[in-house]
Amino acid sequence: MTLENVSRSFDGRKVLHDVNLTLPDKGAVCFFGPSGCGKTTLLRLICGLDKPDAGKVHIPQGTRFSCHFQEDRLLPWYTAEENLRLTGEGIDAEAWLNKVLLPDAAGLYPDELSGGMRRRVSLARALAHPSDVLVLDEPVRELDEATADKMLELIAQSVGNRLLILVTHDRSQAERLGCRVVEFPLDGGAP
């Protein structure tokens, strides 16, 4: 995966300018920097959810992504178990709910879950989905320290042969997951 001279602006404000970046096929990369510096925008460009104003994003054909966004993006008319099963056939939703410390949440709808519980269901769904690239945008944000620690351990165990792209404001999370850190400046320049 490569990005060549990628730029993106919103309402005249440059968020990314002339970004050149090559990502490996597997391993772990962390986009690190202050809020508003373009980390999530770059994720959206890589995943094909947005298009650059200039430059090119080259993704090998057939690359499969699984994403955990800052917002949980659970379908409100599905239970936790049903949201997990959206990842495909053969997913053991019960096992994944246990892994994210929610053994009794299978039949609960998103509006019956706390914010932290919804984040963990969303994380389980991303981890369970068979993909080539695992994109996690602040996956343990708003979780208490003990739960966040367990979720980071689960992420480390679940990456496998994929590329992990992590966004975080906490450098220790990147270090713990063995990430190569790509640091973003606040001014909308290139990392």
Tell me about this structure:
A five-stranded parallel β-sheet has the order 5-6-7-3-8, sandwiched between helices. The mean pLDDT is 91. It has six helices and eight strands; from the N terminus they run βββαββαααβαβαβ. The chain has a domain at 1-64 and 164-191: Rossmann fold, CATH 3.40.50.300. By secondary structure, it is of the alpha/beta class. The longest helix is centred in the middle third of the chain and has 14 residues, at 115-128.
CATH domain class of the domain at 1-64 and 164-191: Alpha Beta
How would a crystallographer describe the biggest sheet? 5 strands, parallel
Structural class: alpha/beta
CATH superfamily of the domain at 1-64 and 164-191: P-loop containing nucleotide triphosphate hydrolases
Provide the fold topology:
Elements: E1 2-10, E2 13-22, E3 27-32, H1 39-46, E4 54-58, E5 65-68, H2 80-85, H3 93-99, H4 115-128, E6 133-137, H5 145-158, E7 163-168, H6 171-176, E8 180-183
Parallel strand pairs: 3-7, 3-8, 5-6, 6-7
Antiparallel strand pairs: 1-2, 1-4
How would you briefly describe this protein structure?
This protein is α/β, with parallel strands linked by helices. 29% of the residues lie in helices and 26% in strands. It contains 6 helices and 8 strands, in the order βββαββαααβαβαβ.
